[in-house]
Design a protein that fits this description.
221 residues, mainly alpha, two-stranded antiparallel sheet, 2 strands, globular
Length: 221
């Protein structure tokens, strides 16, 4: 439940804050220009990889699906909040509120499409590498699955946002490169955290290396 809560929170928040962009000078090597919405998003892949490793592929897919419902529900709330008129004394008026959250519908749609593609790709590849390596080399399946899925995610969401004229096509290439490189960097950095989480869960549930928690075991009658 805690992992699912962190996953859904990261996903929904990334959709709400995406309109602010920032730059980050990475030790003079490269300057990233990316949306702040990208900051919590890599956490979702860390969480799904942890769930995949401990709870299995089915549970990871269930958490991903629950994120869709959370995104749609948050969008409904935003629509209602944007529709009702602000009072004359409201600190935030209709115009400012609409400017900040007005593009959220497109953002959520684009994010959900990209999110579905990327997360399911990530889970499939994670278990492909897990089976291929017989449960060894956690770092390999974590990074290799995340690298490709992050490219799918970044490309898909930018393509849709540019198609709906929320972002200029002139910015597509630069944002794609910055977004993908940033996610790859974060994916590499989060590997020790994945090892720590998996170690803690295995110790808590007394699991053997590469063993997953079994659910719905059939019974003999």
């Amino acid at each position: 439940m805690i992992l699912s809560a962190l996953f859904i929170t990261s996903l929904v928040v990334s959709n709400l804050i995406f309109q602010k962009f920032f730059y980050w000078d990475f030790f003079g090597i490269y300057t990233f220009e990316i949306s702040v919405g990208i900051l919590p998003y890599p956490i979702t892949f860390l969480i799904t990889d942890t769930i995949s490793e401990i709870y299995g592929k089915k549970k990871a897919n269930q958490v991903v699906t629950s994120g869709i419902f959370a995104s749609v529900f948050s969008l409904l709330i935003i629509y209602i909040a944007d529709y009702v008129p602000a009072t004359s004394w409201s600190p935030i008026g209709n115009e400012i509120f609409g400017r900040v959250f007005g593009a959220t519908a497109i953002a959520v749609f684009a994010s959900m499409v990209a999110y579905l593609l990327a997360q399911y790709v990530d889970i499939q590849l994670f278990h492909f590498w897990k089976k291929l390596t017989r449960g060894k080399h956690l770092w390999l399946r974590n990074n290799f699955s995340t690298f490709l899925s992050q490219f799918v995610d970044t490309f898909s969401v930018l393509f849709l946002l540019c198609t709906f004229n929320k972002i200029s096509w002139e910015l597509f290439g630069g944002l794609l490169l910055s977004g993908f490189l940033f996610k790859v960097l974060i994916a590499a950095i989060d590997t020790p955290f994945l090892y720590a989480a998996v170690f803690a869960f295995r110790k808590y549930f007394k699991l053997k290396p590469a063993e997953e928690i079994q659910f719905d075991q059939p019974t003999l009658e």
